[in-house]
Specification:
This protein is 15% helix and 60% strand.
Length: 358
């Protein structure tokens, strides 16, 4: 989110507000542009070059700037008695964050109104192959009442810009709504949705909401597909401790529909509840009675451990699309390493009997 706001906020607010103080000097135009460019670069930490400034009809003024060699910024309007009433346009053929630069057509227009110390900024346009609108107030070192809405944006581009693996490829909608954002405090929420995301031939819908208060995040997530529902609830993430936790419910009505995803010929329903944690590594714990007995499992550090309690063997074989040759209840443990496909089994069989092969 910081990558998205960095240029939309810093470029428009600081660049516009700072350069106006340098307009009335006896210096020639080129020297003025150089002085303003140097000041803006120092104030924003960005490479800013002033291309032109027109103040002949003051209090109406107009300026063109190039930021980071990538962003063309044009501002025009009125500045009088520390009051702004200006329009701007920001265009580029790429987007850049601290992490990466991606090709993208950016074309955003908007307005800035109000006193210099409490400017109201609005804007709308194209970015990330979709539509963006935003609205906020800049009050000293705080951004207040911020709302950024993205519709039908490219999920892959957005995740790449944020430094995340682009696991999602479809169109996304996002709403970022904050009461305030500052260096020491922030409070707000992020809602993110993806529709008809194609993962290995299976279409998924995703909806997630994150509530943020300083370094503490609470979240929920819902994933839906034909015959599958995954819900994460009561999620919490502590930025300071880099620790996260949530409860989950997984309900699969028919496993065979997900063969392209699992690469295995499973069938039948599967239901599990449990918790997922992050503490340097991801840990997933769960319980399931879908096989007739009790499965108690934990996945961590690329290893799956399953405790079985009186699980009918024929149910397991049927789920694996194999004909059961014996009928017994299994109690014990199974250790599986998905990377090496090594498996260790320590179980007891109860009430074993042979089944007819016919």
């Amino acid at each position: 989110m910081a990558a998205i706001l960095k240029y939309a906020i810093i470029l428009i607010i600081f660049i516009t507000l700072v350069f106006v103080y340098f307009f009335f000097t006896p210096l020639g135009n080129q020297r003025i542009y150089g002085s303003v460019s140097t000041l803006l670069s120092e104030e924003t930490g960005l490479d800013v070059k002033v291309k032109s400034v027109d103040i002949l009809e003051y209090p109406y003024l107009e300026a063109d700037m190039l930021v980071e060699e990538k962003y063309n910024l044009n501002v025009k309007g009125y500045l009088q008695d520390d009051q702004l009433d200006m329009e701007y346009r920001l265009t580029s053929n790429c987007l850049q964050s601290d992490i990466c630069t991606i090709d993208d057509n950016v074309d955003v227009v908007g307005q800035m109104n109000g006193p210099l110390e409490n400017v109201h900024v609005t804007g709308a346009g194209k970015a990330l192959d979709g539509n963006v609108t935003y609205d906020w107030r800049k009050e000293r070192d705080l951004f207040k009442d911020l709302k950024l809405v993205m519709q039908d944006v490219n999920s892959s581009k957005l995740l790449t810009l944020l430094g995340k693996d682009p696991l999602l490829k479809g169109k996304a909608n996002a709403t970022i709504d904050f009461d305030h954002i500052g260096e020491e405090s922030k409070q707000g929420s992020v809602v993110y949705e993806v529709k008809n995301e194609n993962i290995s031939g299976v279409l998924f819908d995703l909806h997630t909401k994150i509530d943020i208060k300083d370094t503490n995040h609470s979240f929920m997530m819902n994933v839906n597909a034909a015959d599958l529902t995954l819900d994460l609830s009561e999620g919490h993430y502590d930025e300071d401790k880099a620790y996260g936790h949530a409860f989950y419910t997984l309900d699969v009505k028919e496993l065979s529909r997900f063969k392209t995803l699992t690469k295995e010929s499973y069938n039948g329903p599967f239901y599990a509840i449990g918790e997922v944690m992050y503490d340097k590594d991801f840990i997933v714990k769960g319980l399931s009675k879908s096989l007739g007995g009790l499965l108690d499992f934990i996945y961590q550090k690329d290893s799956l451990h399953v405790d079985l309690k009186r699980v009918p063997s024929k149910n397991i074989m049927q789920r694996l699309s194999n004909t059961p040759l014996i009928d017994t209840n299994i109690t014990g443990s199974v250790q599986y390493d998905p990377l090496t496909e090594a498996i260790s089994v320590n179980t007891k069989l109860h009430n074993l009997r042979l089944l007819s092969s016919e």
